[in-house]
Request: fold
Amino acid sequence: MRVLLTGFAPFEGSARNPSQDVVRMLADDPPPGLLPATAVLPVSYAGALPALRAAIARAAPDVLLAIGLAGGRPHISVERIAINIDDARIPDNDGARRVDSPVIPGGPAAYFATVPIKAITAAIRAAGIPVLVSQSAGTFLCNHVFYHACHIAAASRPGMRVGFLHLPFLPEQVCDRPEAPSMALATQLAGVRAALAALGRTGADLRVAEGAAS
Ligand code: PCA
Reply:
């Protein structure tokens, strides 16, 4: 199984992004039997897609697992759905801001992740790490890249499965607001390792409920 892991650069004034840290650590110390290709994408509407395309062309992956930060969530999120909208509270790292514009004009309203999200969630939970299936990857660069990745798979790489994980803040990112939830880097890394192990084990997904009641 050829795996491409992507993370994102820091954004919104922070010096860190746990997705970048985790991807770099997995490049340096890959799981047994898996040599993932890795890339850190810029938090930039102009730059993210070319970087993603280049990484996919280089790696020709069977599975693309993209990873980003969802600051404020207390758990790892296994994203179910990418939607065709950019609508951001903040500008990207180039100062560009998008409000209510489609990621791809004329594209489908949404794509579902094509990795087994329930099996991944179960594996992360079995490792003792807080995790939920998430029904929204937001409407900023993470959803933007997730949508583009799904679109590339649908349009030209039918063999490539696509998934997205959102990670919490690192403790170092919330020192000055200790009420904000965070998760140690080692725990985040263990969660992504558990997700990769699940990808290696399963093609079909588990049929267990994870959805929200409201
Ligand atoms: N998180 C942002 C963009 C980059 C990242 O790591 C998001 O959730 O859209």
